[in-house]
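Input sequence (255 aa), recorded before submission:
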Amino acid sequence: MDVGFRNPAECRALRVAQPSRMATGPSLLLADGAVELVRIRLDDELAATDDLAQRLSDAERLRAGRFVFERDRRRFMVGRAHLRHLLAQRLGTRPNALELKYGPRGKPRLAGSFAESDLRFNVSHCEGLAIYAFSRGREVGVDVEAVRELHDADAIAARFFSLRENQSYRALDPRDKPLGFFNCWTRKEAFIKALGEGLHYPLAGFDVSLAPGEPAQILRVGETPDHDDGWCLESFLPEPGMVAAVVVEKFPWVT
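Predicted structure, token format:
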């Protein structure tokens, strides 16, 4: 995993530890295990979908059956089976013993006998790649996208980016705009996923950095300028042609 974390001083709790490997794919530990990222290629295991499906709940199998395209159905099942496996590893239980529920805005959480666990998690998928983020006692959000040119990127930015972000985006060299656009998009998506608010949170209500080569930062939250409101942001390159971002709550001693 090509990470390239820059460790801004205000987020010094986010630092790279020695990457380890797991049977389920590459894993990166941050902040002495406070945040863990796992990358999995879903398409590598599509042939094992039927076996992996045994880890799923009835509701998950029913949801899988609603997909129109077979590849999407299999990707969902592989991705959800791996989520259960990774959670079970960290909780010392069996994958099919886990209960999951969704918050008011759709963020998944542990339920049932593990409802009181301090394990937090989030998942993002793009083109057969899944990124899983895990944290103990800290809300976390992750997002991944393929960097590409969009014919309506400028219009999307004008509608969904904040004024400050739009100014930064418009100032980019045309060749840097695709990466700048998806830097912004993944960072904003990771933040609202960490909050658990989804797109109900006003996207213009906070600013993130987006220029290629500049540190990934939350620049403003709400009406307070230059304040990240207790969150850390990092951006990384999980694969060539893709960009991702992870947002996690700060440790209590990080101010």
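Checked by second reader. The chain has two domains: 9-143, 145-249.
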